[in-house]
Amino acid sequence: MPRKATNFETMSIETLEQLFTAVRQDIDQLRDQLREEIKNSINQLREEMADGFKKQNEILKTILNIVGFYDTERKDIKSSLWEHDRRLLKLEKQSV
Asked: Where in this chain does the entry annotate a coiled-coil region (predicted)?
């Protein structure tokens, strides 16, 4: 709320204290609003990042499943290249 210009030299101490208190309250209110906005922005970014990581994880699992390194039944990455070779042979037989 804008205040009109005043000659501070002619004001009483009480009036100056009231003005100072009002300004301090305005500053505190603005600081609290800014904190809340920053907190909300950070939380929103965290949620967006978590969603992005989930999507990337699903894409990676899909790619690994396609090339035979991710076992959708066991929900883990296959540890054996032998299993990978076996799957490639199976895919080759299916394509023939």
From this structure: 13-55
Tokens of 38: 């920053």
In order of 12, 17, 22, 81, the CA distances from 9 in angstroms are 8, 13, 18, 86
- On the 0-12 / 13-18 / 19+ scale of CB atoms within 10 A, 78 is middle
Q: Other CB atoms closer than 10 Å to residue 89's CB: what's the count?
A: 10
User: Tell me, what DSSP letter sits at residue 49?
Assistant: H
Please write the tens of the pLDDT for every residue from 11-33: 788 888 899 999 999 999 999 99
Q: Determine if residue 68 is left, alpha or beta; phi over 0 gives left, psi from -120 to 50 gives alpha, anything else beta.
A: left
Token pair 């305005």 is found at 26
| pTM metric for this prediction | 0.50
